[in-house]
Design goal:
201 residues; mainly alpha; 9 helices; 2 domains
Amino acid sequence: MGSPGTLRGSYAKTAERRREILDAGVEVFSSSGFRNGSIREIAERVGISQAGLLHHFSNKNELLAGVLELRDDISRERMNMTPDGGIDTIRGLVDLVEYNSGVPGLVELYCVLSAEATSPEHPAHHYFINRYSYVVGIATESFELMKSRGELAPDVDPGSAARTLIALMDGLQVQWLLDRDSIDMVEEVRRYVRPLLTIDL
């Protein structure tokens, strides 16, 4: 039996290898989509065999789930996604847009997979349904809290404002990917949000 130090080293190497596979998965699924992206190509990018990759992720669907979880973890680190976040949650969304402008691979992954996942047969179909429900719900509750505090303009509907904000963010990402010099995603989001508020963004 190995020493605790040896075990910790083994776990660390396993975690590092899994992260390398996930990063490669982001690259491949971003450029090729889930349907066309292959386990073989991801394994080659990491420098291991397909069997070696499948030691860490038992199949392609499990790898996709890991890639999406990685993206969500990064998003959660950037913002306060809590129902009582109020303006902090909205500011967090703007900060997330700014962060996304520096990681085109993750943005492309999201855009490609969300388009593919409109098909009910796609393995990420329910993930995106649940994600939109969650994100729009969090934004709605934050706007509702702000409305109760007098921080929203009188004619603003929290639910409509939340859904439009999320739709704007996603639509801007597509335009930005097509021509990154033509649009400032962060400023466009700020321009939408500022008139909704009675406080500074």
